[in-house]
Recover the amino acids of this structure.
């Protein structure tokens, strides 16, 4: 009997001991949650440096992949267990929802503080700050202010393989600038038996990025926003033309086989293995290609321009940003650490180690030329997070899935435009009813 | 009631309590919470939510053709799994039921795919199906059928079938193990008696094996239906639901509604609807199985 009692007691002790947290948290340490597995090692190094310099402890906790991280942050918000500093993944409406619910501190005042006559916010690329900013009268009903500190920036552009260009008899220093040039080069590459454009179009946001580049260049930003506002129809000839560019590329077999369902990692492998002359990809690709094929000879280029009437826009500005938990008892310490982390020196260290574009403009001179070239057109970047108006997610999905249908030859641009407009009308009617 | 009797009754409850608490916390509460959320417009983040009645269900049932198309896709994969996958499993189980050399090796080999992660399986098959350098296209060209080569998962005509084949390859091992166990539980004397009566292999299969295997067939078919309708990981790692909506299934729709559109309430309504459909299918199957047992 004694044996049974002892056994049960031991079992219960072990059971509850097992339920306890393995990490003994230092209550004074600033805790940061992130999803950037490629940067974790550098973050740990920086945390150690910060402790050596200031005596303050900082603890970086990595939760990957990003989908799992995003769910963890949402769940923690519900149970009031968010860390001192974290990042919000998702669209601007998710960011707004976090702010409205009181999970994120307004950092406007801190970012406005000056050092040597320069405000902290002025250290960054303007677009990088804009993605974290809510302007007066914003559609989300959020109090105006800046709510996040940009850690790095990305731009979504195109890259081309110089070696394959040379092989096809094209000038490797003269990538195409206009749509006509691009289609002409694609035709020459095809004749040389070189596969042309690859991208992870299985991830529909990449299709959305390319389509909105083309749309803004063709019809101007305001007309695109007016479409989101419901003032312009997706059946408008300009939108049909945007979709027709995809049809033209499909007809001319510009895309690598299978690009329509390809994940971006596979697309990156394809380009790194020199199995495509062009890739539509983000600035993070510099680090990815370096890992996959260090000898790859490539350069960045802007997506080809389809019109001279409006400026060509590319997705960019948004990268990783950190926010401060409004309920944190270590708010001041958290802001102080973010100020240190985004200082020129730390930014250069981070960029050099991870090959990501730094958010601090002053650090640009210290990164590789190919990476720096991604920042050349930063002034012409745009991103859904800085749009003054946002499209319904179901309309965006219908539009992007429609482009996939064009890429597989299932639908015509006109049909996709009509289908998208129908969804738009349905969602608008629902929004009006609510 | 004496102290001993009270102690006995209370003791019973104390022993049941941990399991009951775990069940309530991790099964019952989330289950009921999904029903509660399904009648709200919660975005998954806000601390408040608005009750909107059956609005989500109304929209889903009457005005969401994409969800119902995804349901149709899931039924197609399920039909293929029920037929081709289970016939293959039965065929292999029948072969392994005989005392063949290296039977255990085959059992291990056939049981390997189910224990692999769906994501890993998807990535391997991506490579097989690749339109440019895929193994399948390479093989087709090798045997002179190069005209059939294509990007299998990016073609609207072959994407769903391609995903179904991956699912069947990954899933047939389960059916194989269960069917083999069922076959081995049939008394050998019945076969010997039938053989003495002059029955050939087909007659023995038809009149001995099949009737005695009906409960096992039912179990395998229920598991196949429930498992296949909830297919998700293979889709995510191969097509992501594309091209277009050609390989979308209910779970991918629920996830994209929940994460992509931040409509948690609506996604919960989808989950409830999908759960009810699976429940209805299971009930019909149980009913049919009872009828078959009576026959």
């Amino acid at each position: 009997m004694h044996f049974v009692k002892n056994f049960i007691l031991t079992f219960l002790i072990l059971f509850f001991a097992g339920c306890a947290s393995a990490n003994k948290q230092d209550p004074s340490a600033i805790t940061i949650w992130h999803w950037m597995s490629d940067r974790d090692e550098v973050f740990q190094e920086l945390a150690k440096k910060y402790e050596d310099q200031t005596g303050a402890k900082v603890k970086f906790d990595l939760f990957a992949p990003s989908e799992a991280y995003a769910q963890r942050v949402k769940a923690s918000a519900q149970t009031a267990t968010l860390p001192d500093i974290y990042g919000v993944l998702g669209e601007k409406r998710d960011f707004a929802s976090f702010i409205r619910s009181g999970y994120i501190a307004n950092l406007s005042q801190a970012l406005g503080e000056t050092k040597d006559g320069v405000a902290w916010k002025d250290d960054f690329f303007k677009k990088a700050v804009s993605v974290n900013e809510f302007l007066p009268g914003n559609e989300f009903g959020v109090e105006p202010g800046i709510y996040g500190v940009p850690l790095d920036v990305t731009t979504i552009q195109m890259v081309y393989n110089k070696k394959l260009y040379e092989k096809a008899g094209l000038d490797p220093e003269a990538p195409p600038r206009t749509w006509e040039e691009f289609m002409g080069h694609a035709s020459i590459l095809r004749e040389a038996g070189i596969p042309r454009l690859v991208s992870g179009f299985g991830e529909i946001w990449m299709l959305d990025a390319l389509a909105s580049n083309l749309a803004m260049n063709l019809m101007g930003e305001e007309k695109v926003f007016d479409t989101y506002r419901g003032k312009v129809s997706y059946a408008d000839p300009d939108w049909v033309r945007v979709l027709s560019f995809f049809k033209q590329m499909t007809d001319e077999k510009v895309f690598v086989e299978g690009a329509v369902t390809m994940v971006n990692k596979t697309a990156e492998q394809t380009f790194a293995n020199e199995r495509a002359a062009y890739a539509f990809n983000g600035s993070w690709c510099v680090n990815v290609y370096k890992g996959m094929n260090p000898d790859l000879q490539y350069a960045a280029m802007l997506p080809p321009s389809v019109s001279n009437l409006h400026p060509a826009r590319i997705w960019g500005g948004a990268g990783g940003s950190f926010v401060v938990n409004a309920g944190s008892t270590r708010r001041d310490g958290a802001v102080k650490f973010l100020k240190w982390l985004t200082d020129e020196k730390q930014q250069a260290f981070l960029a050099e180690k991870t090959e990501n574009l730094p958010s601090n403009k002053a650090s640009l001179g210290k990164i590789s030329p190919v990476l720096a070239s991604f920042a050349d057109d930063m002034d012409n970047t745009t991103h859904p997070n800085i749009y003054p108006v946002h499209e319904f997610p179901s309309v965006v999905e219908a539009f992007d899935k429609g482009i996939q249908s064009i890429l597989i030859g299932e639908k015509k641009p006109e049909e996709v435009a009509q289908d998208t407009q129908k969804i738009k009308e349905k969602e608008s009617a629902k929004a009006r009813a609510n | 009631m004496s102290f001993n009797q009270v102690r006995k009754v209370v003791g019973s409850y104390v022993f049941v309590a941990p399991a009951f608490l775990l069940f309530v916390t991790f099964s019952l509460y989330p289950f009921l919470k999904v029903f509660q959320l399904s009648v709200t417009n919660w975005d998954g983040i806000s601390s408040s939510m608005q009750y909107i009645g059956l609005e989500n269900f109304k929209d889903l049932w009457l005005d969401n053709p994409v969800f119902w198309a995804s349901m149709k896709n899931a039924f197609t994969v399920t039909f293929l799994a029920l037929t081709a996958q289970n016939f293959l499993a039965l065929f292999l189980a029948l072969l392994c039921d005989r005392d063949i050399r290296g039977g255990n090796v085959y059992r291990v080999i056939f049981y390997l795919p189910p224990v692999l992660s769906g994501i890993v399986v998807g990535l391997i098959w991506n490579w097989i199906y690749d339109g440019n350098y895929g193994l399948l296209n390479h093989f087709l060209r090798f045997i002179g059928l190069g005209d059939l080569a294509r990007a299998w998962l990016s073609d609207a005509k072959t994407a769903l079938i391609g995903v179904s084949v991956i699912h069947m390859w990954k899933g047939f091992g389960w059916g194989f193990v269960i069917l083999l166990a069922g076959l081995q539980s049939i008394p050998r004397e019945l076969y010997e008696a039938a053989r003495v009566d002059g029955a050939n292999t087909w007659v023995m299969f038809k009149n001995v094996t099949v009737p005695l295997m009906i409960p096992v067939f039912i179990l395998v078919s229920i598991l196949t239906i429930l498992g296949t309708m909830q297919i998700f990981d293979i889709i995510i790692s191969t097509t992501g639901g594309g091209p277009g909506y050609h390989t979308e299934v209910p779970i991918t729709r629920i996830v994209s509604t929940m994460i992509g559109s931040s409509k948690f309430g609506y996604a919960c309504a989808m989950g409830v609807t999908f759960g009810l459909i699976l429940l209805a299918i299971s009930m019909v199957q149980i009913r049919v199985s009872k009828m078959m047992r009576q026959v």
